[in-house]
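Kindly go through the following sequence and its backbone structure tokens. Advise at your convenience whether the structure tokens fit the sequence:

___
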Amino acid sequence: MPELNLDNPAVRAEFEKIADFWLEKGAGGFRLDAVKEYFSGDPDKNVEVLEWFMGHCKAVDPDCYVVGEVWESFTTYTKYYRSGIDSVFGFTMAEEDGKIAKTINMSGSANSVKSFAQAMVTVEQKLASYSDTAIDAPFIGNHDTNRGAGIFGYDETRIKAAAGLLLTMSGSPFVYYGDEIGLSGSGRDENKRAPMIWDSESSGQTYGPPNMERQENRFADVETQLSDPDSILNYYKRALRIRNENPCIARGRTEVLDVPGQEIAAVRRSWNGESIVIVYNYSDESASVELPGVSGMELRGYLTVSSAQEVSLGEQLEMPAFSIAFLTEK
């Protein structure tokens, strides 16, 4: 790729023209690739470039949204929020060694759902230390990484449980196309960019990028999964519906609540005078969860890995294995 001299005023002016063109056409914002390579090895200079670009874009459209890719450690990529950028992709949650995969695939207190709950607080606090407008952008995989289905061993329960963690985080989670149906893809980059499988007839589908190896997909196409209440796709849809119906999930600040057990966790997410309590049973058995103040709450919704399972709220919260409950004040 060509290197551009972003210290040159003429180059910056051309970038401003490009941004203006798209913003004036109604584009909602931009995804910036490889931000750390604007001036390789110089994070402070990269932050300065972002600060200039964000200042220009927000002057044109205060509501535009910009997310940047900084493929670095948590302590490094979070520093880019000093620029005023809206979001930086949260690599600490992503890939095989990210917090989501460790929570799903590994055992021990450091990899428990309770540890995941605390990690959400840590992320929020770190971002807030750099910017009061920071929006976390967690994800599991993208076009440069192995796909989530393989990361979770093509195990449908694990794939759903991982989606549950991602889509109950605050901020703006990103879902790589195809992960919502368990699409396969690993190894060379072309494999990770295999086309979406829309139906069993392959109508309207592409052949994928050149040099893509044949992919053996373990799960059904979009059309088939839409009609299956237990599909991965319908789990994603339920999770997104609950998220959209409860703005506290995306916008609120997280507080970890005290509940017994490592594989049981509860957090309160508060925003704009309202709150929602999210409870996770990520053990492989059903659980009766003792939650302080449960008598003053109602069940707002829940996520289970099977449509035959239910979460119920009485004197205690009854939760199937790998389920999530959402509670609000009566």
